[in-house]
Amino acid sequence: MTMSVVNIVRCVLLLGVLTLGACASSAVVHSSGGALMKIELLGFPGCPNTPAMRENLRAALEGAGAGLGSTFADVNQESLPESDPRRGWPTPTILVDGHDLFGMPAPSTPAMGCRIYPNGVPDAAEIRTALNGTRTGK
Q1: Domain 29-136 belongs to what topology?
Q2: Half-sphere exposure (CA, 13 Å, Cβ side) for 119?
Q3: Max alpha carbon distance in the chain (Å)?
């Protein structure tokens, strides 16, 4: 009897660890003031602007007084299935709840490409401002 209880407890604990591991690996839900935002950074290893965008997004989320936390999913487009619509966004792109943070319309085809921002990769302040606008519905 005692052995079966121990086995059940082990199974429950293992299931809990596996579930938490799966949740932690996706890391896409961001809580801010009660609102939930799914933030994804789309890029791929050969994209020269992805590292700068990653650092700027991280800085924007961690910025003093931003109130945004620091959770986002770093998505490698090359690892996505061919049919995944996220492959169609040019990189680097920040998606919030599936929409481009800077207003680019959703792509119609899943063809990867590079994104050129008019003034270069947005800095942390520009990203923070855009995220705050998304959060407040502006």
Answers
A1: Glutaredoxin (3.40.30)
A2: 4
A3: 69
